[in-house]
Design goal:
By secondary structure, this protein is α/β, with parallel strands linked by helices. Helices cover 32% and strands 25% of the residues. Helix 4 packs across helix 5.
């Protein structure tokens, strides 16, 4: 039986190198399931490897896609036949940008019936990254302050909700005020709009009064951001920071963290690296790099399953919500889908 799949045979601009091809549905080996994919999100972490950033660990041709949701249609072993017909997250197997995925039964996670395909498809990378970075890495809890940039993203919304669940105070930094009230609703204690078009810096007592103590607009400078964070934290500075941007935005976060505190870098949306060793020496902040892949390799499969099932349970109970996706594209429209995913304000794009 033939199926469609997306591959790339060389590294480069995803719109230039991605191809839709036909292939045989893979034969199962012992311990494996065959999953028919229903929905797959397009994440920055899917596109970065295509551009060649991790070329040393990718064997070409490769199939992209780290997450998604599908239905089990076959099992290699009689012991797993009862999984046929179940919706699952087919994780840590083959790339998900194909019609059928072959995956180890041990690393499939059953999806609660209360979750739609659209929500389940997004349930892995961002929720687990946020949860592990807050708990295992930073050990945040009641009384702690976390300052994070790029909080208008899906990941930023999850940090806001985890602040409510874990009890820490989130200071969410965004580029415009579009998502400010939603972040407050989800749990962010303070939202700082770092606007390079701001005519004045709205900080200090007057700014807090105007903003109701929650949404503040400052000029886009490291000194303004550090000053307002110190005011919010009573002069101490934040317990920790999470940088998803890099460049000047990432470096500015280091000035917001108290001496001896932690700064975790989890992304490079700006494409501009930060000389973290110099920044750490200047600010006395401990800088670390977080990759979900490294955590996956470090913990047992049972621990990995436990944490994912916890997050899926919260999603099913309404304690953790993900944004509704934007447009949906068929697998053979992948180039249009990638273009849409990289457009500002597009929302999460799904391949279906």
């Amino acid at each position: 039986m033939q199926m469609q799949r997306v591959i790339y045979e060389r590294f480069g601009d995803p719109q230039a190198v991605l191809q839709v091809t036909q292939a045989e549905v893979p034969e199962l080996r012992s311990g494996e399931l065959l999953v028919r994919m229903l929905a797959r999100p397009i994440n920055p972490s899917d596109l970065i490897p295509i551009r060649g950033n991790y070329a040393h660990r990718i064997q070409l041709p490769a199939i992209p896609g780290y997450e998604g949701v599908g239905m089990v249609v076959d099992a290699a072993d009689a012991a797993n036949r009862d999984m046929i017909g179940q919706r699952v997250l087919p994780l840590r197997g083959e790339g998900t940008w194909q019609e059928y995925v072959r995956v180890p039964a041990a690393t499939t996670i059953e999806v609660p019936t209360a979750l739609s395909d659209e929500m389940a498809a997004q349930a892995y990378i961002n929720p687990l990254t946020a949860w592990v970075s807050c708990t295992d890495t930073l050990n945040l809890g009641v009384g702690d302050y976390l300052v994070a940039n790029a909080c208008g993203s899906a990941l930023g919304r999850i940090y806001a909700q985890l602040s409510r669940l874990l009890g820490f105070q989130l200071i969410a930094v965004v580029r415009d005020s579009l998502h400010a009230e939603e972040l407050r609703r989800l749990g962010a204690a303070h939202v700082i709009v770092a606007d390079d078009q701001a005519a004045v810096s709205e900080h200090g007592a007057e700014g807090r009064a105007r903003a109701g103590g929650s949404v503040l607009t400052i000029s886009d400078s490291a000194s303004d951001l550090a000053e307002i964070v110190r005011e919010i934290t009573g002069g101490a500075g934040a317990t920790a920071a999470i940088d998803s941007v890099g460049g000047a935005s990432g470096a500015a976060l280091a000035g917001c963290v108290r001496p001896g505190g932690q700064l975790l870098t989890i992304g490079l949306l700006s494409g501009q690296a930060v000389p973290w060793a110099e920044v750490a020496a200047r600010t006395d902040v401990r800088v670390g790099l977080f990759h979900l892949r490294h955590w996956n390799n470090r913990v047992t499969v049972q621990r990995w399953r436990t944490e994912l099932e916890r997050l899926l349970g919260w999603m099913a109970q309404g304690k953790l919500e993900l944004p509704m996706p934007g447009d949906r594209y068929a697998l053979n429209e992948v180039n249009r889908a990638v273009k849409a995913a990289e457009a500002p304000g597009s929302g999460k794009i799904l391949l279906i």
